[in-house]
Amino acid sequence: MKFWQQLLSKLLDKQNVYLLSVIENIGSSPGIKGFKMMVCDDGFLCGSIGGGVMEFSLVEEAKTLLKKQNFKIFLKKQERIKTLN
Known about the structure:
Elements: H1 2-12, E1 17-21, E2 36-40, E3 45-47, H2 52-68
Antiparallel strand pairs: 1-2, 2-3
């Protein structure tokens, strides 16, 4: 519930916010369906979509779009690449 309260607070403060959400996961993924995270234009972050490189990449993309005020809805498929040992 705290996540939604934080989101409401930011929206009431007229903050621009990107909401990142895991909509599907297959196999052993750090992000599980339903994980969510918000990225606000004041730099505030809340929640997690699984951490690691995937989360970092998407947070940076959201920050860039917020700075440019280029507000769009996007869906990004992230795949983990298997390495041979």
